[in-house]
Design a protein that fits this description.
This protein is mainly beta. 7% of the residues lie in helices and 47% in strands. It folds into 3 domains: 96 residues, Immunoglobulin-like, CATH 2.60.40; 84 residues, Immunoglobulins (Immunoglobulin-like, Sandwich); 81 residues, Sandwich (Immunoglobulin-like). The strands form 6 sheets. It has a 5-stranded mixed beta sheet with strand order 2-8-7-4-5, with no helix packed on it. Strands 16-22-21-18-19 form a 5-stranded mixed beta sheet, with no helix packed on it. About 4% of the residues have low confidence.
Length: 280
């Protein structure tokens, strides 16, 4: 049986179209982000017409919408494989095409913006740091500002707070998936603990007493240790004044001693530690 020329020509054209048709190409301007991310999916195809389409978004949902553009929202942490089949024959699968991170929640990671007084780093120098647990799947980058002034991009940094006052601290945490959250806190700097680094209790009228001035109404705890860690003196008072004697009344030997000073009723706590020298 001879196939009529017209039918043969049509079949040849259709066959050529089938041979030339290629699998669709899936693209999206954004494929990575935080949960609740809306992804705009697009496909290109060599087909002159599309009679059917089946999207599989990798999260258990599908769509038969044949439109070239499709909007999909992803709500949970994970990597999602996206596939598309056109006209029941041409298909494309992209493993882990969409990657979704997790919203940074202050309560979930138990975030605290803390500060503490320092020693040996200059007057009014404070360590400011982000304290949190590890209940987040990715590491963070840090963007700090204090009263609008940019600070170091680190988990902790040293910053000079010029006077006792309230300071507005802002921290932007961003993970490698692009999830970002901003946290703010007001810290109440009640003053810096100024510690002498040397005194000479030799009764010559010069530097005979080790003095730590009061910080507001805070009660100061003062402890002195030998270089081997033996506690030899402690007291609590608004103003610390130590004459270099043990509780027994004996004079301590010249040398290097370690101290810890705490403002007991300060909020947040203020603590300072370091070494000082005693000369006779």
């Amino acid at each position: 049986m001879k196939i009529p020329t017209t039918i043969f020509t049509v079949l040849s054209i259709l066959g050529s179209l089938v041979l030339q048709a290629q699998d669709p190409k899936i693209t999206a301007p954004i494929t990575q982000g935080c949960d609740s991310l809306t992804v705009n999916l697009h496909y290109d195809t060599s087909l002159s017409f599309v009679t059917s389409a089946l999207w599989d978004f990798g999260d258990g949902t599908t769509s038969t919408d044949p439109s070239f553009d499709h909007t999909k929202k992803y709500n949970k942490l994970g990597a999602y494989t996206v596939s598309l089949t056109l006209n029941g024959t041409l298909s494309t699968t992209i493993p882990n095409f969409i990657t979704i991170g997790k919203t940074i929640n202050k309560d979930t990671i138990n975030l605290q913006i803390a500060y503490r007084d320092t020693t040996g780093l200059g007057a009014n120098a404070y360590v400011i740091e982000a304290l949190y647990n590890n209940n987040h799947p990715y590491p963070f980058t840090y963007q700090w500002s204090i009263d609008g002034v940019y600070a170091d991009n680190k988990k902790s940094f040293v910053h000079t707070l010029d006077s006792a006052s309230l300071y507005n601290v802002s921290l932007v945490l961003t993970d490698q998936m692009g999830c970002s959250s901003t946290f703010t806190e007001t810290i109440n700097v009640q003053g810096s603990i100024e510690i002498p680094n040397v005194f000479s209790p030799n009764d010559d009228g010069k530097y005979d007493v080790f003095i730590i001035n009061p910080i507001g109404n805070n009660v100061l705890s003062f402890k002195v240790f030998t270089r081997t860690g033996l506690l030899i003196y402690k007291t609590e008072a608004n103003t610390i004044a130590w004459d270099g004697r043990l509780p027994s009344g004996d004079k301590v030997f010249p040398g290097i001693y370690y101290y810890i000073v705490e403002a007991l009723n300060a909020s947040p706590p203020i603590q300072k530690s370091g070494f000082f020298y005693i000369y006779r």
